[in-house]
Amino acid sequence: MNRPLLVRPRLSRPVRVLLFRKELRQFLRSRTALLTGLLLPALIMVIAPVVQLIAASASPTQRGAVPSGVPGMAGLDHLSDLFLYFTFPLFFVLGGLMTPSLAATHTVISERERRSIELLVALPVSVRDILTAKMAANLLVAGVTLLPLFVVDSIAVLLLTDAGPLYLAAALLLVLSSLAASIGISLLLALLARDFRTANNLNGFFVVPAMIMTGLCVTLVPGLWRFVVLSVLMLALGGLAYLIAVRWLTFERYLT
Amino acid sequence: MGAALAFQSVTKRFRNGRVALNDVSWSIQKGAHACLLGPNGAGKSTSVRILEGALRPTAGSAELLGEPVDGPGYAAARLRTGVVPQGPGMYADLTAGEYLRIAAELYGVSPARAIATFGLRDHARTRMAELSGGFQRRVTLAAAFVAEPELLVLDEPTVGLDPKAAHEVHQYLREVMVGRTVLLCTHNLAEAEALCDEVVILQAGQVIVQGRLEDLRRGARSRLRLTAAQGPQALVACLDGIGPARVEGRSVLLEVANPEAEAPRLLRRLLAAGVDVFECTPVQATLEDVFLEAVR
Q1: Which end of chain B, C or N, has fewer beta carbons within 10 A?
Q2: Residue-range definition of the domain harbouring residue B31
Q3: Are B194 and B230 within one domain?
């Protein structure tokens, strides 16, 4: 047993591309998956932040009651700044993490729950190939969904606040890092959850540490650095989830 | 002729501590039609999973067409193997044709011949979940057969099917099994007996019987089927002390060392006792007898 059983280098690339296309085709045909994949991100990434910005720009005082002595709050005395630096990171992390995880619930858990996974395992593919294709499809769907929504956010930010391209670059970094982190979390979810109910519960559970980290970061790290620190932490969290999934749970768990 | 499938001292222990296979060794020669039998939890599905490459043995080695399942040649051997999974769920968002095209692309062939062989031409555009049970099973057979593999691994191919659909699947199997090595994993002993000539019986993760069905039948205890006008209970009462007897319908199955030698003496004794025996036939052991005796 010297070589890892589930890795087949000679076949892997075309197999994964083929499976990836299958996943995309199925995702686009599933109304439930599409609705879940679009509605929640739209709510988190666009509706909530833009409403906040409009409210801030329409506010007559334009000032919030900001506690002093908190490093992350320094200089955030304008209401729109408070939203940009305090609540927006929460939305970006939530959108980046939740969208692929919800997609994973549909593509991975439904396949196991309905036993159609048996059809795939009977073919000359490995469980690693199957899960890699599913994760890649989820990531693509999430990316294609989130990035246009981020563009809408960016336009709102440029029109309604004083923030510039540097802010948007930092925010984009956070969205992309959260998306990357979601791979590890989705994989963990795929290996742990055996049905939709467990998957939904775990989805909520996995978001908690990310939200705590985000809360601490926006409170303690000043300025745009919070986006950078938070991005690094998100990548670390995703990496940890991936390691736990691959090393501790192993791909075999998906079938047992 | 080499072994098409071989398990050498294979142990499979899951993370929860459950041992599915415990130091198991068995093999199937190329060209053989073998069945893998055993009660629930015996380790049949784990064995199939190991051959599929989905599970890794904890210890020992398993070979598929002469290639260790963890070796570099496994991928090529897997492409020469077709697997029919046990009672799979069907995709609601893929048609039979789309699924078969995916299977065919993975094997690097065209699905046309398999679609024609299994009579799926008219159903290729139907979503898999909308097909009848019989056609769903045909799709899985076609996917396994798409590359005309040397080796077929069939995991409960007729489970959950009505008798007509099961009969249809058996007919297809008889056609496609010719000239191929087959491992049939099943609970259906009649199916195994009809399709296979070799048997491997697992129980609690260990091999308890392996051999040619013919040899196992010959080695099983010989029996006489006796039927009397007075009914089976009267027969059992008269047969007390002769050998183990079991009532089966209106008859009694009596285990004897040599049916031909013992039948005349036995008949004389029963008739003398006033039991009107009108049937006395030597019974060849069935696979069910072999199985029940093995797992007793």
Answers
A1: C
A2: 1-73+183-214
A3: no
User: How far apart, in whole angstroms, are the C-alpha atoms of residue B7 and residue A252?
Assistant: 19
Is A17 an 8 Å CB contact of chain B? no
- Domain-ending residue, one of B194, B214, B234: B214
Residue B3 lies in a domain: yes
Q: Are A242 and A181 in contact (CB under 8 A)?
A: no
Q: Are the beta carbons of B94 and A22 separated by less than 8 Å?
A: yes
**B204 shares its domain with B241:** no
Answer whether residue B160 is part of any domain: no
Question: Are A26 and B93 a contacting pair at CB < 8 A?
Answer: yes
The answer as to whether B93 is a domain residue is no
B 117-156 residues with CB below 8 A of A? 140, 143-144
What digits encode the pLDDT tens for the residues B103-159?
A: 999 999 999 999 998 999 999 999 999 999 999 999 999 999 999 999 999 999 988
ipTM rounded to 2 decimals: 0.82
Question: Cβ of A18 and B78 within 8 Å?
Answer: no
**pLDDT 10s digits, A217-244:** 988 888 889 999 999 999 999 999 989 8
Q: Do A126 and B55 touch (CB under 8 A)?
A: no
Which residue does chain A place closest to B61, by CA atoms?
Answer: A1
Domain shared by B187 and B224, yes or no: no
Provide the number of structural domains found in chain B: 2
**Are B201 and B230 members of one domain?**
no
Pairing of strands B198-203, B33-37: parallel
Please give the single-letter amino acid code of residue A78. H
Q: Tell me, what CATH number does B239's domain have?
A: 3.30.70
How far apart, in Å, are the Cα atoms of B66 and each of B1, B3, B26, B70, B180? 11, 7, 14, 12, 15
Q: Which residues contact B253 (CB under 8 A, 6 or more apart)?
A: B223, B224, B225, B226, B245, B246, B247, B283
> What's the pTM?
0.81
H/E run at residue A81:
helix A79-82
What's the maximum distance between 2 C-alpha atoms anywhere in chain A?
71
In this structure, are residues A106 and A32 in contact, taking their beta carbons and an 8 Å threshold? yes
The CATH number linked to B45 is 3.40.50.300
Nearest CA in chain A to B105: A18
Mean pLDDT throughout B167-173?
A: 89
Report d(CA B288, CA A17) in Å as an integer: 47
